[in-house]
């Protein structure tokens, strides 16, 4: 294969992967669409169904007193050509209507002739079984009179008579109606899925970062969910919970290694972690990055700078143990030394957020933020800042002036690329270098995480005063059942 053909092949392969992902994502809507269209077709067929009854007779025609059963005579050829027109003529219909005392002719007439022998099959169809049979008998009786001027004197000899029909000949095929509806529903849904995949401008895989955003993806975090179990266990997502699976632990080590390498390039120690929208897992990533750096022996502080929706305490499962918040320090209600809580078991210091602040820009615009960061930078190897989504508010930009670099979290197939670019532009305008992006919640088919299962990141709920909800099902309080996942204690 030539190099020129390779990109097209990759694009087609990527599109097919994305299409299959769309099917997995919206499979419930596929079933609903099939059920609705199948029911619609069935109801339509039921409402518009008109039963029709058919009576038929097989007969031969005798001309000039002799039966014409064998072919080859000119008389039989003339009968074959003329008889269909005679039976469909107004003369015949008027005779039948007069005979049966009808105002209109409520039936359809069909005549079949056999090539090998001179006999005919007459079919009469009507919405009334008795009417169909009556018209059939009337036609057979009046046919010699109606054809006397065309065929001369003829006689009709009935060979077989079906009698009055017991059931409609056009019975309603319920299975066929449902099958047609299901097929149409599937086709319509596939068209929707095709155009959705074609116009779904989200990040699906690592190479999309370079392709659309000119940013390097430093790691992919697998999507993991906990299996439902009867007994209670720790459901918080962090590297010291052995239920999260080995894939998550390895991914966080990769993030740590590359963050250390990138920050050495410009002696950066204050790392801002943000995303474009709520629900992308930035708080979970920030907390685990701090824990991972501390595990490596680096003295690390984790600061919850998301004043509108403090989440670090929830991520670590320590929300109830929070005594003081970052807002207390910024308001000079307490010293930073007293506000920092040391997690001895994990070797990290945390400055939690306690309660949501209605107007955080006021606090972030004061010089106290710079003083706080200077104090932390003097005492720690790394300071990890969990900040609000950069594409929604100016909070992250206000904190950016105090940071050395940024790590951008992007959840797979979540925020549109345009929205991600807006968030990154906000940081760029603050002259804050982005050391890389992290693809979060990567599914196994796209992210290549085989048996690691799936992963859902922490709760944003209604995300305080941000005014945007996280997609349904993304709350930390609910986890879905999945297949076996690999686990390994560290």
Structure overview:
The chain is an alpha/beta fold and 490 residues long. 43% of the residues lie in helices and 16% in strands. The chain has 18 helices and 13 strands. The chain has helices at residues 6-25, 27-47, 74-88, 90-100, 129-146, 148-151, 174-199, 207-213, 246-264, 282-295, 312-316, 326-330, 336-339, 360-364, 368-379, 395-400, 417-429, 444-447; strands at 53-63, 66-67, 108-113, 119-126, 154-161, 217-222, 270-275, 300-304, 341-343, 348-351, 382-386, 405-411, 434-442. It has an eight-stranded mixed β-sheet with strand order 6-13-12-7-11-8-10-9, sandwiched between helices. Strands 1, 2, 3, 4 and 5 form a five-stranded antiparallel β-sheet that branches. A hairpin with a 5-residue loop joins strand 3 (108-113) and strand 4. Helix 2 (27-47) packs antiparallel against helix 7, helix 4 (90-100) crosses helix 5 and helix 9 (246-264) crosses helix 10. It is rod-shaped. It starts with 5 loop residues before the first helix and ends in a 43-residue tail after the last helix. Mean pLDDT is 83; it is low at 1-10, 66-73 and 445-490.
Notable traits:
490 residues; alpha/beta; eight-stranded mixed beta sheet; five-stranded antiparallel beta sheet; 18 helices; disordered N terminus; disordered C terminus
Rounded mean pLDDT score: 83
Q: Work out the oligomeric state of the chains in this entry.
A: single chain
Shape: rod-shaped
Q: Alpha-carbon distance between the termini?
A: 45 Å
Low-confidence stretches: 1-10, 66-73, 445-490
| β-strand amount | 15-25%
SSE arrangement:
Layout: H1 6-25, H2 27-47, E1 53-63, E2 66-67, H3 74-88, H4 90-100, E3 108-113, E4 119-126, H5 129-146, H6 148-151, E5 154-161, H7 174-199, H8 207-213, E6 217-222, H9 246-264, E7 270-275, H10 282-295, E8 300-304, H11 312-316, H12 326-330, H13 336-339, E9 341-343, E10 348-351, H14 360-364, H15 368-379, E11 382-386, H16 395-400, E12 405-411, H17 417-429, E13 434-442, H18 444-447
Parallel strand pairs: 6-13, 7-11, 7-12, 8-10, 8-11, 12-13
Antiparallel strand pairs: 1-2, 1-4, 1-5, 3-4, 9-10
